[in-house]
From TrEMBL:
This is Deferrochelatase. It is found in: Cell envelope. Its cofactor is heme b. Residues 224-409 form the Dyp-type peroxidase C-terminal domain. The gene is efeB. It is an enzyme of class 1 (oxidoreductase).
Length: 422
């Protein structure tokens, strides 16, 4: 509440206050500001400062950059993310690409450890590493532009067309792809800015997308994240403790039958910008939404009962003899059991890029999935979804990319060195 002040002669009914020293005045203002801030008043935020605290576990956590696999693949969902694709500039050759990957590797290594870059902007100067991960991949066209066509993996053959696709070519593919994830927005943007500056005249931004997930600690206990439809998303992800996890997600040592040796320890990333038609979705009752998905919205459990991790009983029937989980329910159509065991590790971000001309939210999922072979992971599942998934009426695939993500590097090496110097 504000009080109107009328200028004019001082009224004799208003008592004169005693003169305050500067120290006493500042102390009084600080106490009053704290009290107002406690009640949610705007004045409190104007006259008080945050109390310094020790670096939290969110900020201090670091993900090792070096290793057999690149970071950012098996890491738990991160609060903030950026995806960015580059095309090599005209005249940039294999040597220039190698120099760029060397610069990028050095920058990513320093930032992942919480250190500053050579030409640091100061954006995240006060923060710790915040679980920052940076992952690099090569698109199909990279090999043509660097004279490395013979080293291009067969798994990078273009994805098939799907009837539900409405792809924007300008926001798809690219010679180089970078995934950035962190548990702090400024740390993630700092990495994005640093890598874009490192590209200099060697590579130009083709497209860039921003995403987010629920922040660590936002729930009473750790749980699977939700997407913008309110659905628990990622329940049946492969887990590192699974006996066949590495076989499904990573290219074997030596490269295997389909992959060149430089891809050992690597993986293939399929990236899809999936617009969610949220106004249409929100118009459904919760019961109808659950029929579309085949799971309870409250906890992600299958409609056939149990908890989130209970396997759906795809044979269960209701009293009228109808499948409890409908024939076109997303959980049934996407289940590994109905796709020859096809599986992929999903690590998406949600996105919201404002509103379209009709006032509908331009929002949805930046879908990222990892697999040793996209023809055995993403492709068969997406073909099945394309033919008869009830969820398809409420989503639209608007951009797509497929990238070969090489294995990790040791200290002193750079990502992709076995390809570029092999």
């Amino acid at each position: 509440m504000t009080h109107e002040h009328h200028p004019g002669p001082r009224s004799s009914r208003v008592p004169r206050l005693p003169r305050l020293s500067r120290r006493r005045l500042l102390g009084t203002i600080g106490a009053a500001g704290a009290a107002i801030g406690a009640t949610g008043g705007a004045v409190g935020t104007a006259v008080t400062r945050d109390t310094p605290v020790a670096l939290s576990t969110v900020g201090s956590t670091a993900v090792p950059f070096h290793g057999k696999h690149q970071p950012g693949i098996t890491v738990a969902p991160q609060a903030c993310g950026h995806l960015i694709a580059f095309d090599l500039a005209p005249g940039a050759d294999r040597k220039a690409a190698a120099a760029l990957l060397r610069r990028w590797t050095g920058t990513a290594e320093r930032l992942a450890a919480g250190r500053t870059t050579t030409d640091d902007t100061g954006i995240a100067l006060d923060a710790g590493p915040s679980s920052l991960t940076v992952t690099f991949g090569f698109g199909r066209t990279f090999f043509d532009r660097t004279g490395l066509e013979k080293q291009r993996p067969a798994s990078l053959d273009p994805l098939p067309d799907f009837s539900s696709d409405a792809l924007d070519a300008d926001r798809s593919n690219g010679d180089l792809w970078v995934r950035i994830g962190a548990d702090d927005a400024l740390v993630a943007f700092h990495a994005l800015r640093a890598l874009q500056k490192d590209a200099a005249d060697t590579a130009r931004v083709r497209w860039q997308m921003n995403g987010f997930n629920r922040s660590s600690g936002a729930t009473a206990e750790p749980m699977t994240t939700r997407n913008l439809m309110g659905q628990v998303d990622g329940t049946r992800n492969p887990r590192p403790e699974d006996e066949d996890f590495d076989e499904r997600i990573f290219v074997p040592d030596g490269g295997g039958a389909k992959d060149p040796a430089w891809m050992a320890g690597g993986s293939y990333a399929v990236v899809r910008r999936i617009r969610m038609l949220l106004d249409d979705w929100d118009g459904l009752s919760v019961g109808d939404q659950e029929q579309v998905i085949g799971r309870r919205k409250s906890d992600g459990s299958p409609l056939t009962g149990g908890s989130e991790t209970t396997l759906p009983d795809l044979e269960a029937r209701d009293a009228d003899g109808r499948p409890v989980i409908a024939a076109n329910a997303h959980a049934r159509v996407a289940a590994p059991e109905t796709n020859g065991g096809a599986a992929m590790l999903r690590r998406p971000f949600s996105f919201h890029d404002g509103y379209d001309e009709k006032g509908a939210p331009d929002a949805g999922l930046l879908f990222i999935c990892w697999q040793a072979d996209p023809l055995r992971g993403f492709v068969p599942v997406q073909r099945k979804l394309d033919r008869g998934d009830a969820l398809s009426a409420f989503i639209r695939h608007e951009a797509s990319g497929l990238y070969a993500v090489p294995g990790g590097c040791a200290p002193g090496e750079y990502v992709g060195q076995r390809l570029l110097e092999g």
